[in-house]
Design goal:
Layout lengths: L1 E8 L2 E8 L7 H7 L1 H12 L10 E8 L10 H5 L1
Antiparallel strand pairs: 1-2, 1-3
Length: 80
């Protein structure tokens, strides 16, 4: 998927388009349940050695979605 994210860096809110691989297809579900994707986005935007205090990433919208494969688990099983 291609998603539009927003993040705060140097007292300025920036937006950019990034790719996301996730089972979830809603922005609020990605932010709430997919910790692996959110940690990857955080390390990509802020870097490893960032000393920013308020590291926050907001997934605004999903612009493009391509199905790669199907999961054996249901969405409810992924949310646990």
């Amino acid at each position: 998927m291609t998603a539009r994210i927003a993040f705060k860096k140097n007292k300025r809110i920036s937006e950019r388009f990034v790719w996301v691989v996730s089972v979830f297809d809603q922005p609020h579900e990605i932010m709430q349940y997919d910790k692996k994707t959110m940690s990857r986005l955080m390390s990509d935007t802020y870097g490893r050695n960032s000393k920013a205090k308020n590291k926050q990433i907001i997934v605004r919208e999903i612009t493009e979605k391509i199905t790669l494969t199907n999961s054996n688990l249901t969405i409810d099983e992924h949310k646990r």
